[in-house]
Amino acid sequence: MRNKQPNKDGALGWLQQAVLGFSELCYTILGLDGKSILAELAVALLFCIPVSIALSYWVFEGGLHWDGTMHVFMGAALALLLLFRLWAAYVRFWEARGHLENSIQACRTVAVTVITQYHRHLGEPGAEVPKCVDDIRRYSMMYFFCMIFQLIEVDVRQKEIEELLTHQELQLLLRTPRARGITCIKWVAARLAYLEALGYLAPLQLHETNEALQRMISSFNGMVKIKSTSMPLSVRQLSSALAVLYVYTAPLALASDFHQIHDEYWSVMLRTLFATLILGFTILGINQAAASLEDPWRNSDSDLPLVKTGVRLNEEMLFLFAEPIPPLVGPDNGDQKHGDSDAVMGSRPVGAGSRGGHIKEIDGTVEP
């Protein structure tokens, strides 16, 4: 006999998902999780109210009849223009997101290669080696922060990188206001070459890190390209002007059509007002959404979270460089010395190996 309890739980779960989905939909529409587009359109939509009332009165009392054929053809052309602007803005936004991800991936690649090679070598490293390894972490994060601060057009002297900079390094960065990210990449490359000269990086591994540095440069160039090349003014101006003209003249055609059906002014005016608000929210909303995506780093809620991403990446890098690597455990009976053939794959490590081995820290010490 089939148990009926899962069906009851399934129905209850379905109802909960439906309620949560609807609440999330309302939460998103009202813009409670960030900057609402309703706030950006509030003035333009409120201006539709007196325009609709005035034009409805003109049509109803003045006997004006406005043919809506022109608005139909104008609406088709405007829709194509707005969709093109929205598509182009989305492509710019997603391209910027791709460059941001490539820069993060490159920083992680360099960090993992350097820290694993640092832990791989036995013996006590010199004092310059831990300092060189930590400089790579600092310069990688300085590259990321310098790039995003250049994009959002703020001064490089921010609290996020105060702990990453020395006074001398800050003075060097201030000399190159438009190429600070590239300068930091140069510093990372110099430290990597120094580690290779000391024998902590193999030539092949240095080549792999050079590929990551090339991705850093490519991401920086792509970000700057999007920043310096805005959407053509002709497209932005034409779409905005036609959207405003179409919305604010729409009450003439709407009131004329409603007047042919209804003989009362309030009936015509209210229908015209309601239809104009819906039309204005649609047309002006698409135009405003495209404008918000065209510049992905205006430091608003609709843009890429550059600063938050940098802070999280810095925390990740600190954890990556500070935490030791787990010890290499021995065979199942780890108290005795055995060859590699005695190690059992998948067995639970016991003995001396399970209690921890000698792990070289970032400061050059050896954990007992």
Question: Could you please describe the fold and organization of this structure?
Answer:
This protein is mainly alpha-helical and 368 residues long. The protein is 69% helix and 0% strand. The protein is built from ten helices and no strands. The chain has helices at residues 5-30, 37-62, 69-120, 128-151, 167-174, 180-198, 203-228, 233-259, 265-294, 306-322. α2 (37-62) runs antiparallel to α9, α3 (69-120) runs antiparallel to α7 (203-228) and α6 (180-198) runs antiparallel to α7. It is elongated and about 95 Å long. The relative contact order is 0.15. Residues 1-7 and 332-368 have low confidence and may be disordered.
What order do the helices and strands come in, and which of them pair?
Elements: H1 5-30, H2 37-62, H3 69-120, H4 128-151, H5 167-174, H6 180-198, H7 203-228, H8 233-259, H9 265-294, H10 306-322
Helix pairs in contact: 2-8, 2-9, 3-4, 3-7, 3-8, 3-9, 3-10, 4-6, 4-10, 6-7, 8-9
Region (Disordered): 330-368
Subcellular location: Cell membrane
Main location: membrane
